[in-house]
Specification:
Blueprint (H helix, E strand, L loop, with lengths): L12 H12 L5 H8 L3 H16 L5 H35 L1
Helix pairs in contact: 1-2, 1-3, 2-3
Length: 97
């Protein structure tokens, strides 16, 4: 018996947006849109929810997520530098006495 790993298809952001637009702008039902583009209906529901969340600000967009990660990394680095400076100033203050 051979084991085959199931490979999930990935769709571009543009494809997802256009598919959701079939439902939201052109009046297709989700099932009709799913059949037209060859995906499952629950995928369209998920894409639609994600797009609505991103537009309302409830979910971070990819660019916002990248910026957040970059800023968190920078904050961590600055905290480490601050601790080093605190220790250095304490050391030199002790030497001055």
């Amino acid at each position: 018996m051979t084991s085959t790993k199931r490979k999930n298809k990935t769709y571009t952001k543009q494809f997802k947006e256009e598919t959701v637009a079939l439902v939201t702008e052109q009046g297709y039902t989700v099932i009709d849109a799913a059949e037209a583009v060859g995906v499952r209906a629950n995928q369209i529901y998920n894409w639609k929810q994600r797009i609505e969340d991103e537009s309302s600000g409830a979910r971070l967009t990819g660019e916002d997520r990248e910026e957040l990660l970059r800023l968190r990394k920078e904050v961590k680095k600055l905290r480490i530098e601050k601790e080093i400076l605190k220790k250095a100033s304490a050391y030199f203050a002790k030497e001055m006495k």
